[in-house]
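Hey, can you fold this one?
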Amino acid sequence: MFLRSLFFFAVLLVQQEILPAGNWGHWRGPTGNGSSLEAQPPTTWGAGKNVRWKVPVPGRGSGSPVVWGERVFVVSAVSTTGKSGFDGRRLSKLAFKLFCFDRGTGKLRWERTAVEAVPHEGTHSTNGFASASPCTDGDFVYAHFGSRGLFCFRMDGSLIWKRNDFGRMTTRNEFGEGSSPTIHGDRLLVPWDHDGPSSLYALDRRSGKTLWQALRKEEPTCWATPLVANHDGGKQVIMNGQTCARGYDFETGKELWRCEGQTQRPVASAVATKGLAIVGSGFRGSFIGAFNLEGRGNLKGTKSVEWDRDRHTPDIASPLISGSRLYYHSGKSGMLSCLDAVSGEAHYLIERVPEISRTYASPVAAGGHVYVTGRSGTTVVLKDSKKFEVVGINALGEGVDATPAPAGRELFIRGEKHLFCIGHKGSE
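Sure. Predicted structure:
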C-alpha cells in the first residue's frame, strides 16, 4: 500500500510539472499592473536552453500574446498581396487575423481572418496595423483592430459578434492605432481616443451592446489601455490622456475626477494599488503622479495628488507594480527606476539596465523577478526588490516590441517574426 501511494504521489508531481498552470488573459496581466502572483518562468534562456518551442507568426503586429489554459493567442496584419502593407504613401490590402496556438507544442490550432481591408491612413515606421493586444476571459477572446472593427470569438474560433460602427480613427501624425480593450466582469472596455471625437465605451462582453459611452471631447490621440481599480466597495475605470488623467464610475461611465499635467501623445497605461491610481507619460515633457481614488472633480493642486515627479517618466512602456514597488522606464530608454508605490519615495532611480537601450515592451513581474525587454530582443531579468540586481541576460535573435506574458512555469514572447515559449528544461 505504501509503495502504491508513493507511486501515485510521484505521478502527481510529474503531472504538475507537465501541465501548464495559470493564465495571462490580458497584456497587463490578471492584476492589470503587469504582475503575476503565481507564475514561475525561467530566468535564463537562449540557444538550446529553456526555449520549448518557436513558431513563425506571419505578417506584422506588436500586439502582446495572451494565454488561457492550453491556448496562446496573438493578432497580426498579413498582406494579401505579398507586400509589406505600407510602401511610402501606398497602402495595400491586409488580412487582420487572430491566431490560436497550442500552449504545449506551439502547433497552430486555428486562425481566423476577422476582416480584410486597406487601411485608410498610414502608421509609424515602428508600428504595425495590428498593435492592439487581444484579451480573453476563458469564455471569449476579443481581437480589436481599431478602425477595422472589434471581434468576439469563442475559444474554438467561432465568431460570436463584431462591431465595426465606431468610425475611423485619425491618429496623431498617422502614428497608427493600438489601444487595447480590457475585460472586467461582464464588460469590455474599449478606448477610442484619436484626433477626432474621442470616447471610452463599455460593452456587454457577450453581445457587444453598448452599455455606456463616456465622451472625451478634449482628448486627442492616446494609446493607453483602460484599467479597472477596486476602491471602497466600488470600481473605477482609470484612463490616461494628454489633457487629463481621469477616473470614471465603472457602472455608469460618469467622470469622477480628472487631473491635468500629462505630456503629449500618452501611451503608458495606468496602474493602481491601495486606493491610488498612478498615471504617467514622458514625451515632450515628464509627469507621473499618484491620485487618491477618493478624490472628486479637478484634483490638480489638491491633497488627492499623493505624490508626483517631473523627471525620467515612462513614455511607451507602461509602469509595473509588484507588491509595494513601482517600476518604470525613463522615456523609451533602458534606464529603470523603482519607487515605493504609495509614498513615491525612491528605492533607486534611473539605473541602467545592461544591454538594453530602447524599450517599447512593458516590464512584467513573476516569481520574485522583473523581466525587462528591449527592442533588440534582449530580456534582462532583475531581482524584484528594492535593490537593483541583475539575475540574467537573455537574447532571442530578433526584435521584440510586445510585452511578454508570464503564465505558470512559462514565458511567452512575441518577436518580430516568431512566437516563443520559454519554459523550464531540466534545472537552470
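The first strand starts at residue 51 and ends at 56. Let me know if you want another pass with a different chain boundary.
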